[in-house]
Structure formats: C-alpha cells, structure tokens
Amino acid sequence: MRKILLISLISFVAIMGLNAAPAQAEITVIQVTSNSSEDSMPQIKGSHVVWQRYWNGDWEIFLYDMTTGLIQQITNNNHDDISPQTDGKYVVWMACSGSGGEICIHNIATGESRQITNNTNIDSLPRIADGRVVWTSNAVADSIGPGEIVLHDIETKVTEQLTSNAVDDSSPRISSDAVIWARMDQDDNGTMFVHYLPCGPTVQAPEGFVWEESPQTDGDLTVSMINDGNDWEIILSHNAQKEMEQITDNFTNDRYPRISGDNIVWMSGQGGDSEIYLASHSTVVPPDLEDDGNNLARLIRDRILQIFSGVTRGLGKMAS
Q1: How much is the pTM?
Q2: Which of 27, 59, 66, 106 could form a disulfide linkage to 91, CB 3.0–4.6 angstroms apart?
C-alpha cells in the first residue's frame, strides 16, 4: 500500500511539472510586392527591406518600411541600378552608368541620395555596415585592370583605397569591426586579407580564420533553402537546438532568403513573375507558461508535497 501510494503521488507531481505546453513559434507571412515586374535580390536590416525591380526597361531600387508598410522607389533613371544593400540607416547600390559602374547611397531618414564615385572605373557590388561602404574598383584602360578594395565613410565622406598592387583584390565584406576580401595572385592562388576598423591594421587572415557575418544568419537563427523535389522552399534553422522550421510550402520557387532579427525576406517565383515576401518569426508563450500559470503550478506542487510528507510520516508511525 505504501509503495503504491508513493508511486501515485510522485507520478502526479511529475505530470504537474510537465503539463505546461512548450513555447511555440508563430510565423506571419506577408506579400510585399504584387505586380507584373521582376522583383529580386532582397536585403533586410532592422525594419527596412531593399530590392531591385525591372521597371520600364531597366533595373531600379525599391525600399519597404516595415513600420509604415510603405514602398518607396529610390531610383528612377534610364540605366541599371543593381545589387542594393542596407544597414538599416542607408541604402547603397551599383549604378551601371557611363563607362562602368558607380556607387550610390540613399539616406533613409532624409530621403536624400548621392553618388559616391565618379570615375571611369568599374566600381561594383558594394557592401555596407554601420555607415561604412566597401566595394571593388577595377580601372578600365585597354582592358579591365585588377581589382582594388575601396572603403568610404558616409558620415565623414572620407574615401580610402585599402589596396594598391598588381594582383586582383575582390569580393569584399564588411562588419562593424573589419573588412575582409580575397586576393588572387598571378598563379591564381587565393589569400584572404583583413582590415580592422576604423583605422587598421591590414593583415593576412590567420589560418583557420572564419568570417561569421552573413546576411543569412542573425544570432541563433539561419535561413537557407531546401528542394522538396518540386521547387525550392525557405527553411529556418535554430543553431543551438539543431532544429529546423519550414517557412514556405507552395508550388513556386522561393529563393535568396535573408534575415534580420526575427524577420525573414525572400523572392518567390522567377523571371517577370517574382515577388518579395516577408515573414516575421516570433516565439509565442502559451498562457500556462506565463507567470500566473507558473505560480499556480508551483502552489499545487507544493501542496501535493505537503500531503506527501504527511502521508509518509503517518505510514512511518503505523509501521512502528
């Protein structure tokens, strides 16, 4: 009798401890664009999304403000504006005008845009972080020269060329702390270099160096794609728990995912039928996991333990 009673009480206490439902993920998806144009290559930072749209015969840059729900066309000209990036305060892109490419910026708060570069070089594929822009610049003469890495501070308007040599420097990336890029020598041997911000030094990356900054990862969350046999879908990985959530499940190709905080952006479809989508991922705590529910559960468990303690003392006296 004593053994059965002990097992029953312990089981009841265990059930009370496990009865609370686990926290669940809630995903809200909205379609940002809906038109007959091609919207592609989205980027996101904070509450702002940027992308390029094929509009009236060339590519233009568009901006979406999540707080207001408004879409703004940043560029409107007769040349291609491509590869937009944002740090949440500024938008940068490559303008394919003149003999090559130029780097342009847009101040989100003021609505002002300006051209950073004005030369005959091909200035391409800018990246931005915390108000600093980095890009590759190739001089053009009889042929396209090797790439050099250029850094620009938007606030001070100071431009600095980080490399100057006869080899090819390209593919720069930037974070709050550093700029990295790849260098290819005449024998096609690659080396990675790091320039520490704000003022250097510039050093060859040590062996085993890993660049952790990625537009597909923020904190413990990483977005990527998976092919389900029919088309591409967007998935979200929780790195610490090694768990995966499927964000999309449809009959179109969902590609080019990017993440900032709990917000995920991607392009869906292809060609002239592609649109921009945005998902907000949040953890919802069920009511029985909130403070009141936890307090009630603790009170019940404490009362059961009191009963359990009294029963065991009574059984002890009976046994004696």
Answers
A1: 0.80
A2: 106
